[in-house]
Amino acid sequence: MRKPVVGVIGNAHRVENRFQVQMVGERNLRAVAEVSGGLPVMFAGSPDITDIGALLDTVDGIILTGARANVHPTRFNVDPCEKHEPYDIHRDEVALALSVACVARGVPLFGICRGLQEMNVAFGGSLHPEIREIPGRMNHRMPRLENGEIHPDPTVVFADRHEVDLTPGGAFAKILGCEKIRVNSLHGQGILDPGKRVLIEGIAEDGTIEAIRIAEAPTFALGVQWHAEYDPQHNPINRKLFEAFGAALVARQKAAA
């Protein structure tokens, strides 16, 4: 049997402030290849380039990665604000439609950070642009130096920062074999109201939604607010998630054979 093919969404980026490119973080690609056992293939987060139907005819699963840009507020009926930029409206269009299509067609779907947020919005949910501004919430953004620059040490940036309580008997608890985990935190935006089919399966100690499942999805359709692509070779939580995603890819291949 061939390796499962996994589509990994790209993000709009400008090189040297001149060249428009699509890019994806290598950690996502390596997690798919080294832990899920799949062949990662980046596809463009642009509706002019990416035909969702053709894409889903080609791949065995989809990864919606984290990204710098926020989901555009108009997607959940909120006015945009300059301080919450940048946005990537083309990725929004692809990712939201793709989330619904994956679930409808039984294609395994794994949303990470922004990917979780996209899944929530796709099913009618809303987001808060800056979780730390809600009373009682912690700062979920990545660690920075005193001068405001991002900390240069990735082990500090991606270090576990808070606990998450998982729903007893839920999909995450079954995959991970426990009901409490510790995770990293590198986001400003987060879920405010869950979508109609979005089941909350993980909540941080400050009340932030950290893990979701799409109700009645025929296969793996999970989202996490933390960056699960970080070091899944050695992080047991992240490894188990990518292994479970890999098992769903194989199951889909066998069912289609």
From TrEMBL:
Q: What is its EC number?
A: 3.5.1.94
Annotated membrane-spanning segments are none
The biological process GO terms on file are: polyamine catabolic process
The Gene Ontology terms for molecular function here are: gamma-glutamyl-gamma-aminobutyrate hydrolase activity; transferase activity
GO cellular component terms, semicolon-separated: cytosol
**What enzyme class is recorded for this protein?**
hydrolase
So what does this thing catalyse? 4-(gamma-L-glutamylamino)butanoate + H2O = 4-aminobutanoate + L-glutamate
Database matches in InterPro entries: Class_I_gatase-like (IPR029062), Peptidase_C26 (IPR011697), PuuD-like (IPR044668)
Q: In which pathway does it act?
A: Amine and polyamine degradation; putrescine degradation; 4-aminobutanoate from putrescine: step 4/4
**Keyword annotations of the record:** Glutamine amidotransferase, Transferase
**Record keywords: Glycosyltransferase included?**
no
What does the record give as the function of this protein? Involved in the breakdown of putrescine via hydrolysis of the gamma-glutamyl linkage of gamma-glutamyl-gamma-aminobutyrate.
Which family, according to UniProt?
Belongs to the peptidase C26 family.
PANTHER family recorded = GLUTAMINE AMIDOTRANSFERASE PB2B2.05-RELATED
**UniProt name for this protein:** gamma-glutamyl-gamma-aminobutyrate hydrolase
